[in-house]
Amino acid sequence: MTMANTGPPQKRRKADVPHHVTMDTKPASPFLSMFETFRTELDEHHDRRERCMKASKDITAASKKIIFALQRTRQVKQPITPKIQKDSQQYWDAIAKLYAGISRDLQGLDSYRYNRQITGGNQEFMEALTFQHYLETQELISYDEAVKRLAQLGGEGGAVLLTPSDYILGVFDMVGELMRFGITAIATGGQLPTSKADPDVQMADADAEDSAPKLEVEDRDVLTDLRNLRIHLEALDASTDGAFGRDISKKMGVMQVCVQKVENALYGLIVRGSERPKGWVPDLSTGPREEIEGY
């Protein structure tokens, strides 16, 4: 007598399924393509972010080299010498190439999205541009002119945005370069670089028909310009402007110390100049300049 199989039923293996039987498969998730799109966008975002950060560092390095070359200048309101122009032009060209390479990544909303990644380079570029403009004209380059100069470097990718905060912070940093420029001139030439009053301006004021009082046009030296800059920069109130306000508060004290150093150097030259050896340079180690890096 044959006994019945009372054990658990055996599962059919996949190989035992006849070929004519079709297995039911789950349909693809409707969210899969959506998340693949998100992944692509995130990858592109990180690539743009890395490109902007690298370009910012390279722009900063090239701008510093331009400033080092410009510090060899000893006069204001005069054309930059051909030798210094030649030495710095290669770095201006490098900066233009770097901006052209990332200009497509900084269009529309992305110009604000990646502002913290490029702000360090923009500020250093502004410092070099403002310093050279001052040496050539003894004037502070306007925001509109600075925007135009940077926009020209964007190339086919479009203009790169220069925010007002990057412009202002670059001007703050430029004060430190004017301090070095002025103190070096005192040490090597015994006086601050000064521009003579324009006689044509004085004559035009004298011939003016209106009887309004005219300010007498006088010679201007670097310290006069530094003091004027200090007055206007100290009037800024950015305490409620988040990160920009914090950057301003850090740079404000450094700017004030820079102006004081030029004042002290000039006072020392006038009061005790005869007691100091030729080529004396004041100690600049106190109150080191603080750098604010973009992230």
TrEMBL record:
The keyword Nucleus applies. It comes from the Eukaryota. InterPro entries: Translin_C, Translin_fam, Translin_N, Translin_sf. It holds the Pfam family Translin. Residues 1-23, 194-214 are annotated as: Disordered. It is found in: Cytoplasm; Nucleus. Keywords: Cytoplasm, Nucleus. One of its GO terms (cellular component) is nucleus. GO terms for molecular function: sequence-specific DNA binding. Belongs to the translin family. This is Translin.
